């Protein structure tokens, strides 16, 4: 029994929220990059900034959409994102942005 308790104590938590992973979540640990099912669902729906992993919502105005992966990045998370927005404001044409 001590061996099982020691194994449980070594079990990693979700890499995003830190919550304890269930046995089912552990079976897909590598595919989900260590995220629990709830955090993985947010990731699958592109609701997390891929840089800081914080969930964003429609009220967040300082976001830039990545033309490569289609995730939204907080401008404060990537200096290039802020530069792209400033360039885009001065030009009617769209400026491509690719997140880190």
From TrEMBL:
<protein>
    <recommendedName>
        <fullName>PHD-type domain-containing protein</fullName>
    </recommendedName>
</protein>
<keyword id="KW-0863">Zinc-finger</keyword>
<feature type="domain" description="PHD-type">
    <location>
        <begin position="49"/>
        <end position="100"/>
    </location>
</feature>
<dbReference type="InterPro" id="IPR011011">
    <property type="entry name" value="Znf_FYVE_PHD"/>
</dbReference>
<keyword id="KW-0862">Zinc</keyword>
<dbReference type="InterPro" id="IPR019787">
    <property type="entry name" value="Znf_PHD-finger"/>
</dbReference>
<dbReference type="InterPro" id="IPR013083">
    <property type="entry name" value="Znf_RING/FYVE/PHD"/>
</dbReference>
<keyword id="KW-0479">Metal-binding</keyword>
<dbReference type="Pfam" id="PF00628">
    <property type="entry name" value="PHD"/>
</dbReference>
<dbReference type="GO" id="GO:0008270">
    <property type="term" value="F:zinc ion binding"/>
</dbReference>
